[in-house]
Every structure is written in C-alpha cells, then in structure tokens.
C-alpha cells in the first residue's frame, strides 16, 4: 500500500495519476461502509482511494467514540492490505494533511483534525511507501 499525503491543492491527485495511469479510482462516500471499495477494485489494477475527509466527517456524526472509529478504520486498512495480496493489486491512499496551521475553535473541527492525523498515522504504519506532496513536488518519507 502507498500513501500520498499533502495539503489542499498540493498536487496529490496529479502525482498519483502520473505514477498510476491505469488505476481505478474510488471516492469514499459519506456514510458508506469503508469496504465499499470492493465494488470498484479490479484484480491486477491499482486502486486509488480518495474522499477520506468527507467520509470521516460523516463517521464522526455516526460514531461519537473515537477509539471505536479508529478500530473500524484499522480493520478497513488491514482489509486493504490483505486485498493487495489476494487480488494482486496496488492500493494507493490519498489523504489530506491537516496538522499544520491554526487550531480550529469549534470542538467538532478539532476532533476532525485530530482524527485525520490519527488516520494518517495508522495508514502510514501499514504502507510500504509514504509520499509527501507540497507545491507539486513529491518526496518519499518512508
């Protein structure tokens, strides 16, 4: 699994499109199960997952327990790693970088920022490669 992370309009999509031109893209739908990507995945083709922020915003409303939410997405990330092996596909995650800048005043916005950071950490731990994208420049972090 590969993780591309960076701020808004940093060039993440372009970086992924250039590296994985034959990829199938799946946008996580707010309120949909994390495993809905299975409907899009094709054996032997890279699978790019986007839409994490909107998916997580909806999950915050549905699941007030942060530990439970982390367990759920942890199981989802593990399923993606398993699918790579079982379906001979490369999974690519595009995540926003929200950890820099002003701390939000609203509690919900702070919770979203914190959970996006934890999601990125959990995804990075499971990834074979982590890429940081800023101003269209791509640097491998791990």
UniProtKB/TrEMBL annotation:
Catalytic activity: adenosylcob(III)inamide + ATP = adenosylcob(III)inamide phosphate + ADP + H(+); adenosylcob(III)inamide + GTP = adenosylcob(III)inamide phosphate + GDP + H(+); adenosylcob(III)inamide phosphate + GTP + H(+) = adenosylcob(III)inamide-GDP + diphosphate
Listed pathway(s): Cofactor biosynthesis; adenosylcobalamin biosynthesis; adenosylcobalamin from cob(II)yrinate a,c-diamide: step 6/7; Cofactor biosynthesis; adenosylcobalamin biosynthesis; adenosylcobalamin from cob(II)yrinate a,c-diamide: step 5/7
Top-level taxon: Bacteria
Keyword hit for Transferase: yes
Keywords: ATP-binding, Cobalamin biosynthesis, GTP-binding, Kinase, Nucleotide-binding, Transferase
Any GO BP: cobalamin biosynthetic process
Entry's EC annotation: 2.7.1.156, 2.7.7.62
InterPro entries in UniProt: CobU/CobP, P-loop_NTPase
UniProt cross-references to Pfam families, sorted A to Z: CobU
Gene Ontology MF terms: adenosylcobinamide kinase activity; ATP binding; cobinamide phosphate guanylyltransferase activity; GTP binding
Function of the molecule: Catalyzes ATP-dependent phosphorylation of adenosylcobinamide and addition of GMP to adenosylcobinamide phosphate.
Record-stated family: Belongs to the CobU/CobP family.
PANTHER family in alphabetical order: BIFUNCTIONAL ADENOSYLCOBALAMIN BIOSYNTHESIS PROTEIN COBU (PTHR34848:SF1), PTHR34848
Name recorded for this polypeptide: Adenosylcobinamide kinase
Organism: Halomonas heilongjiangensis
């Amino acid at each position: 699994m590969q993780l591309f992370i960076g701020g808004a309009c940093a060039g993440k999509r372009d970086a992924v499109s250039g590296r994985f031109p034959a990829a199938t893209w799946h946008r996580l739908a707010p309120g949909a199960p994390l495993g809905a990507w299975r409907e899009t995945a094709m054996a032997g083709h890279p699978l790019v997952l986007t839409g994490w922020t909107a998916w997580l915003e909806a999950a915050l409303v549905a699941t007030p327990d942060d530990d439970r939410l982390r367990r759920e997405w942890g199981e989802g990330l593990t399923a993606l790693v398993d699918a790579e092996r079982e379906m001979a596909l490369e999974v690519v995650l595009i995540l926003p970088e929200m950890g820099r800048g002003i701390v939000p005043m609203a509690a919900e916005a702070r919770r979203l920022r914190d959970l996006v950071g934890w999601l990125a950490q959990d995804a990075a731990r499971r990834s074979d490669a982590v890429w940081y994208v800023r101003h269209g420049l791509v640097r491998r972090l791990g």
